[in-house]
Amino acid sequence: MLKAEKLVLLTNTPGVLDKNGNLITGLTARQIDDLFADGTISGGMLPKISSALEAAKGGVNAVHIVDGRVDHCVLLEILTDLGVGTMIRSH
């Protein structure tokens, strides 16, 4: 068990997008299962989400998928209410 508070995955995408291309700012494991089932999560996002889920199940409280191309993305995601990526909660 990791017992880490957060894991940040820096990527070259804004985060998890819905079918209309809009950023989904927060997800739970159940919501992720639904997005897998309807094909919303596919391609290059599959390994990112799989890693995020595994970390969450391993004890990490929150996993953030953020676009590393955005200036100050880690600070914006972690220290603001709005954020700039997708946060996946373990609970």
Q: How many domains?
A: 1
Alpha-carbon distance between the two ends: 15 Å
Largest sheet: 4 strands, mixed
Please estimate the helix content.
25-40%
Q: Label the overall shape.
A: globular
Strand order of the largest sheet: 1-3-4-2
H and E order: EEHHEHE
Proportion of residues in β-strands: 15-25%
Ranges where pLDDT stays below 50 over 5 or more residues in a row are: none
Which class do the helix and strand fractions yield? Answer: alpha/beta
Could you give a quick summary of the protein structure above?
The chain is 32% helix and 20% strand. It is an alpha/beta fold.
Describe the structure.
The chain is an alpha/beta fold and 91 residues long. It has one domain. Helix content is 32%, strand content 20%. It has three helices and four strands. It has a four-stranded mixed sheet with strand order 1-3-4-2, with helices on both faces. The model has no long low-confidence stretch (mean pLDDT 90).
